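Hi R.,

As promised on Friday, here is the backbone we talked about, encoded as structure tokens. Could you run it through your design pipeline when you get a chance and send me back a sequence?
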């Protein structure tokens, strides 16, 4: 199985990348990620071209990485700038350097050909930067499952009633219908649960005296970014017609980085339209999400194991598979386009 390479993937939380040499595996490539003296992030292939020691076992010398075996030293462009004991530098003493950028508290790496990298393509959520909205940077959740099982799950608002009964789901929602829309490399799966009891999340943060209209808009972007618009307003107050003046709304954001074909890291964060400066609210939301995402992890790892053991042929299909199916179609389209471009070169 191949991955979409012409994309920006998260290599780590900005808070975790510093002046040490951090090893990261992304799409099967091993990278060493660090910060330059001026604070800018940098990423090189984690492999010395001399005798194959991972560069992450070496040391930083200013902005250059010195290999820990015989001291070959590479600048951030991947060029060898020093070979101890000799004047000449072999022309193939060079490592791949990856375009890298910092956005929304994360370090992003472009995994395709460097000349196609444009930092303007990095996903950005406007509310993240808005002073009326509060932000919580969550965890890096390791899931032993292929990333497409995670993207299936994030095109699937129906699972919350069964997987997350105490936080995000409720039995009233069982019969609520699902709509699917598609636009520019994004599949949006929509579910409204009108006139229902607030679910655990909105009981904790909403103070709604009665029933609510609850929405879930799951925006799943190729190849692996999910932005979940999740909210509630007093039942009948017009939220379903677009009036969100008096509502509790969160964006739960998942930036998923495939490590290899059976492992994915989900960097998640959340953005909310209430109590923007209140750290106890930030922590409370993170705690609810931590419970929910641990529930997803159990399900997805179990599905991964079953798929490996039994394959996927002959499985039953139901209506709610439309969103995940459409998203996989978009990923396949992106993969085919990359393969065609590669073949043409
Ligand atoms: S293996 Fe890196 S310098 Fe020899
Ligand atoms: Fe879930």
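Update: got your reply. Pasting your designed sequence below so it's all in one thread:
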């Amino acid at each position: 199985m191949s991955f979409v390479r012409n994309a920006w993937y998260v290599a780590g939380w900005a808070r975790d990348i510093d002046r040490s040499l951090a090893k990261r595996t992304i799409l099967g490539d091993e990278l060493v990620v660090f910060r330059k003296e001026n604070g800018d992030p940098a990423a090189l292939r984690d492999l010395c071209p001399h005798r194959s020691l991972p560069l992450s076992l070496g040391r930083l010398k200013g902005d250059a990485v010195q290999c820990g075996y015989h001291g070959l030293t590479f600048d951030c462009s991947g060029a060898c700038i020093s070979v101890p004991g000799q004047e000449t530098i072999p022309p193939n003493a060079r490592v791949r350097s990856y375009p890298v950028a910092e956005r929304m508290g994360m370090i992003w790496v472009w995994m395709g050909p460097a000349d196609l990298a444009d930092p303007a393509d990095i996903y950005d959520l406007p509310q993240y930067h808005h002073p009326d909205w509060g932000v919580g940077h969550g965890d890096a959740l390791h899931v032993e499952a292929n990333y497409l099982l995670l993207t299936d799950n994030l095109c699937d608002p129906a699972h919350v009633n069964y997987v997350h009964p105490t936080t995000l789901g409720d039995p009233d929602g069982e019969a609520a219908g699902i709509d699917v829309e598609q636009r520019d490399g994004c599949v949006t799966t929509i579910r409204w649960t009108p006139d229902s009891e607030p679910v655990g999340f909105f009981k904790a943060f909403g103070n709604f005296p009665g029933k609510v209209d609850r929405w879930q808009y799951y925006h799943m972007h190729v190849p692996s970014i999910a932005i979940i618009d999740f909210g509630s307003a007093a039942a009948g107050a017009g939220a379903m017609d677009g009036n969100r003046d008096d509502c509790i709304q969160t964006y739960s954001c998942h930036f998923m980085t495939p490590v290899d074909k059976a492992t994915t890291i989900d960097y998640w964060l959340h953005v909310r339209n209430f109590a923007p400066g209140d750290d106890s609210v930030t922590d409370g939301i993170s705690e609810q999400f931590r419970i929910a995402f641990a529930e997803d992890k159990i399900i997805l790892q179990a599905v991964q194991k079953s798929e490996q053991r039994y394959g996927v042929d002959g499985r039953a299909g139901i209506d709610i598979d439309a969103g995940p199916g459409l998203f996989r179609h978009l990923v396949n389209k992106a993969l085919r386009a990359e393969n065609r471009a590669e073949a043409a070169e």
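One thing I noticed while checking it: The longest helix spans residues 279-310.

Thanks again,
M.
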